[in-house]
Write a structure and sequence with these properties.
The complex is a heterotrimer of chains A (100), B (204) and C (462).
Chain A lengths: L1 H37 L6 H27 L8 H20 L1
Chain B lengths: L11 H27 L8 H4 L5 H9 L1 H7 L5 H17 L16 H4 L37 H9 L1 H4 L20 H12 L7
Chain C lengths: L9 H28 L14 H33 L6 H24 L15 H25 L4 H26 L3 H36 L6 H14 L15 H28 L5 H5 L1 H23 L2 H7 L3 H31 L6 H34 L4 H38 L17
Classes of the chains: A mainly alpha (100), B mainly alpha (204), C mainly alpha (462).
């Protein structure tokens, strides 16, 4: 019974996330398309285009920075700190209780 | 804890420099530097330049309220006009008018029909828009095309007690712009001058 | 780890909470007073100092600088030492900051009422106060950065610290940019671009990261289970850091600011929706299997209610930012409803949850009454929901009336019923907050229990 319920929850959550991301993604792409469409033509074009291109370049730069640092092993133990703060809180509370 | 000393991204320094300073500057470049450079070569006019020609509304105030005008400004010259505009702008800011009135006409929602020509950036390149008074809320109507919509008298009565000329109005009255007899003080004359200036360049 | 003396400066936290709550009551009172103007029954009409326009600025500034900043500072004075294991730089500096902050808020209030407001939304702090605020912000950063820095030398940082670091840097930059550049250098449309970003960043780069940072600390600690996924939370952080500074211009849509910049703001705003969804999914997955806390534990209840409101706000953001919806709702009360939802419904709710959690431990007394807690919670939640709905509807009515070229006064007349409901719901919110404060005060009158720690289990509903 319990296992069934869990599966259902996972399924619903999963669908929700997938649909959410898909919906946001589509709107996002649509908006990008729109922004490309509004770029002023003529003399001012370069001005606007250079900004969009820089934006994309910078975003890509950050992506590769993350990739590099990930390959270096930076994020090897990402989840450790969330346990650490709970232990820390326990210890501090304990100390405070004794201190009072 | 086996401290890995060569970790880069999960450290304070990285977050500080990249997320804190870096991304902020990036946002600054795209959201602010863009418009600043884009509009940068439109010259910024000083109040004196705006006021070199005294409009009839200001002279009209001098004729209708001769004593009060004399006490407040003397005579309607470009210098006193500039002074009135500056003071009017300050009152507009300090009474929070800009929280109830906006100052731009959008090209949508029938606004050009209601208020007048759509606003352009060059209209705002002057000292009185430093800081800008675009506003984000319209409890009352937009004011950027206000010049000449109403007469001076209407405004003088309206600022004293808005519901008396516009029944049901929820705009607050400003009786401290007036003396005990209800005659306009310098403040009232200035705010009317300022409001009558807004958009006067479109009515020529 | 070494602890010499105190780790958390209890008195400092208490002082900030008390000051914050006082300004909260003042700010709400000012808001209520202002709302009476919309019903044409403003009691102080004709008095220069209490001109409605000035009272409005008092309302927003008391809430932003008096309540939110004080409350968030209290939160991070509690959280940062506990996450890092190191105390903040200096207790004396802490007290200096405390007093400087209160003096600056009072000066701002006095300055606004006296007529020295600055025409920058959310930054109406008079010009002569601005440099001192900048200085104060630098001092705050000085006080908090050392423990974070030391902890980050030991091990990779916890997500709260990422948020705090970001916020401490951003707020200084944002404040300088928003208060000085448009005031002295950049007029008109380009100035509007900067002010729009300031309006947005003050919420997005000060209040939001500090608020989320505190949530990432308090929720796991109270639930006694770690956050669902730490890596997902980091995605939330980097998304916020990357997209948030790029969307400020959505406050001036269809304005004379160059159109492509407005579009980029729309894109960034919609992009951040994805990020917000990941953050909320993370928190609700943390709660899975212990939903009972929502019923039994007041802090968690305030937190998660705030998160639901946050989700509504952000969904609304993504919808209202599009240029199509902007045509109708810009300049209307819709936006006012949105602002109340986020500033009160999210961040004030979180801070109240934090106070529910901390107050017994700070004062070493039990809460006086759980019934009062219940009343405070429901009055606030219902009051806020009603206010939000009323203002949203009023916004649509106003927007379409304007579009339909009806006489302007129609939009005022038709709004009055909504504004009446708004005032009533504002009264409910004030009643809720007053009960909350009363509960805080009455708790002080009870016997001290000597222990601060064990009380948390009792902060539960009956």
């Amino acid at each position: 019974m319990r296992g069934k319920k869990k599966e259902w929850i996972t399924f619903i959550m999963g669908t929700w996330v997938v649909f959410g991301v898909a919906f946001c993604g589509i709107t996002f792409v649509y908006k990008v398309y729109e922004i490309v469409n509004t770029v002023p033509r003529g003399e001012m074009m370069g001005f606007a285009v250079i900004q969009v291109v820089t934006y994309l370049l910078v975003a890509m730069g950050f992506f590769f920075l993350f990739l590099w640092s990930f390959l270096r092993g930076d994020f090897s133990d990402l989840e450790a700190s969330k346990y650490r703060i709970l232990e820390m809180e326990e210890r501090i509370s304990e100390m405070e209780r004794r201190g009072v | 804890m086996d401290a890995k000393t060569d970790i880069l991204i999960e450290r304070f320094g990285f977050v500080f420099i990249v997320a804190g300073v870096g991304f902020f500057i990036l946002g600054f470049i795209f959201q602010m530097l863009g418009p600043v450079l884009f509009l940068g070569n439109i010259p910024i006019r000083s109040v004196e330049e705006i006021a070199h020609e005294v409009p009839w509304q200001f002279r009209d105030l001098a004729e209708e309220y001769p004593e009060e005008f004399k006490r407040a400004f003397g005579s309607p010259t470009p210098e006193t006009y500039a002074e009135a505009l500056r003071l009017g702008r300050d009152i507009y800011i300090r009474e929070g008018c800009w929280h109830c009135h906006s100052q731009y006409v959008r090209p949508v929602a029938n606004e050009p029909l209601r208020y007048g020509p759509v606003s352009t950036a060059s209209e705002y390149q002057n000292e009185l828009q430093l800081p800008q008074l675009f506003g984000t809320r319209r409890v009352g109507p937009d004011l950027i095309r206000e010049a000449g919509v109403h007469s001076n008298d209407w405004h003088i009565a309206h600022f004293y007690d808005p519901p008396s000329v516009e029944p049901g109005s929820i705009m607050p009255g400003y009786p401290w712009f007036y003396d005990e007899d209800g005659r306009p003080k310098k403040e009232a004359l200035s705010i009317v001058t300022f409001v009558q200036w807004l958009g006067s360049w479109e009515r020529r | 780890m070494n602890h010499r003396g105190e780790l958390v400066y209890y008195n400092l936290v208490t002082a900030h909470i008390v000051a914050g709550v006082v300004f909260l009551v003042v700010g709400l009172g000012a808001g209520f007073l202002y709302s009476l103007q919309f019903l044409n029954s403003y009691p102080l009409g004709g008095v220069e100092f209490f001109s409605p326009g000035r009272i409005r600025m008092l309302h927003t500034n008391a809430i932003a600088y008096g309540w939110l900043v004080n409350g968030l500072l209290a939160g991070i004075y509690w959280a940062v030492p506990r996450i890092t294991g190191y105390p903040v730089l200096s207790r004396t500096l802490g007290w200096v900051i405390f007093f400087v902050l209160q003096i600056l808020v009072l000066l701002t209030a006095g300055g606004i009422l006296r007529g020295y407001a600055q025409a920058i939304e959310w930054g109406e702090t008079p010009l002569f106060v601005d440099p001192f605020i900048t200085l104060g912000l630098i001092l705050i950063a000085l006080n908090f950065i050392p423990p974070i820095l030391r902890a980050s030398r030991d091990a990779p940082m916890y997500v709260s610290l990422w948020y705090f670091t970001g916020a401490l840097v951003w707020v200084i930059l944002v404040y300088i940019m928003g208060n000085f550049v448009p005031q002295y250098y950049v007029p008109g449309a380009a100035g509007a671009a900067i002010v729009g970003n300031f309006i947005h960043d003050l919420v997005g780069l000060l209040v939001t990261p500090l608020g989320w940072g505190l949530m990432y600390f308090f929720v796991p600690v109270i639930l006694k289970r770690p956050i669902w996924s730490h890596s997902l939370s980091l995605m939330g952080f980097w998304g916020l850091a990357f997209f948030y500074p790029m969307q400020g211009l959505h406050h001036y849509m269809w304005s004379p600011v160059p159109m492509y910049v407005q579009y980029s703001a729309v894109v960034a705003t919609i992009a951040i929706e994805i990020v917000v969804t990941t953050v909320l999914a993370n928190f609700f997955l943390t709660l899975r299997g212990c939903g009972d806390f929502l019923r039994n534990n007041y802090p968690i209840r305030w937190f998660y209610t705030g998160m639901v409101f946050y989700w509504i706000t952000c969904l609304q953001c993504a919808i209202q930012v599009t240029l199509t919806v902007q045509k109708v709702i810009h300049f209307t009360d819709w936006v006012v409803g949105h602002a109340h939802l986020v500033m009160f419904g999210v961040f004030s709710f979180w801070l109240m949850g934090i106070i529910v959690e901390l107050w017994p431990r700070l004062t070493r007394r039990e809460w006086y009454s759980n019934t009062l807690h219940g009343w405070a919670y429901w009055l606030n939640t219902i009051g806020l929901t009603v206010m939000f709905l009323a203002l949203t509807m009023a916004g649509l009515v106003q927007g379409f009336l304007w579009w339909g070229l009806n006489p302007f006064m129609d939009s005022v007349r038709f709004s009055i019923p909504f504004w009446f409901v708004r005032t009533l719901s504002g009264g409910m919110i004030i009643a809720g907050v007053v009960l909350f404060v009363l509960n805080m005060y009455l708790s002080l009158q009870t016997e001290t229990t000597g222990e601060g720690r064990t009380l948390r289990a009792q902060t539960t509903a009956g």
